[in-house]
Amino acid sequence: TRARANYDHPDAFDWPLLNDQLAALSAGASVPVPIYDYTQHLRSGQCTTVHPAAIIVVEGILVLWEPALRERFDLKIYIDTDADVRLIRRLRRDVAERGRTPESIMDQYLATVRPAHEQFVEPSKRFADVIIPEGGLNRPAIDVLLARVRELVPGGNQQ
């Protein structure tokens, strides 16, 4: 069933759609992005419109795994977060937003989330240009990242 699908595995994602949408955004077109309903385990049938911009941020635990996406990125960032912090965040989110029980979340974590992290997410950090330790709470690393982003934005270094 869809409820048992492993959404922490690269096969769960529509990479061609994302790649096409990024190409359209890069060409100056707006794109409809499907909204996923995590309580029903499928796309909701609704979309949100994303408009082109000077900087397009693509975030997700597996975006560095997909070669076609990596080739599009001017700057690839991996935020390294301790396993206990990742688990606590997932527990809080899935209980509050998805109506799940802590037991079901821990079972899923052990059965699919942790193995997928070890097999796909963690190894993908070798493709990053910048690795930010401490789950993004590392202020000096954030400052270096902001300086680089400002270099990429037209007029971004002007105050």
Overview of the structural elements:
With 159 residues, the protein is an alpha+beta fold. The protein has one domain: 3-Layer(aba) Sandwich (Rossmann fold). 45% of the residues lie in helices and 14% in strands. It is built from five helices and four strands; from the N terminus they run αββαβααβα. The protein has helices at 15-26, 67-72, 83-98, 102-124, 139-152, and strands at residues 31-37, 42-50, 77-79, 130-132. The radius of gyration is 17 Å and the shape is globular. The protein starts with 14 loop residues before the first helix and ends in a 7-residue tail after the last helix.
Keywords:
159 residues, alpha+beta, Rossmann fold, two-stranded antiparallel ribbon, two-stranded parallel ribbon
Number of helices: 5
| Strand line-up of the largest beta sheet | 1-2
Measured by DSSP, the beta-strand proportion falls in 5-15%
Mean pLDDT: 89
Q: Describe the biggest sheet?
A: 2 strands, antiparallel
Query: Could you say how many structural domains there are in total?
Result: 1
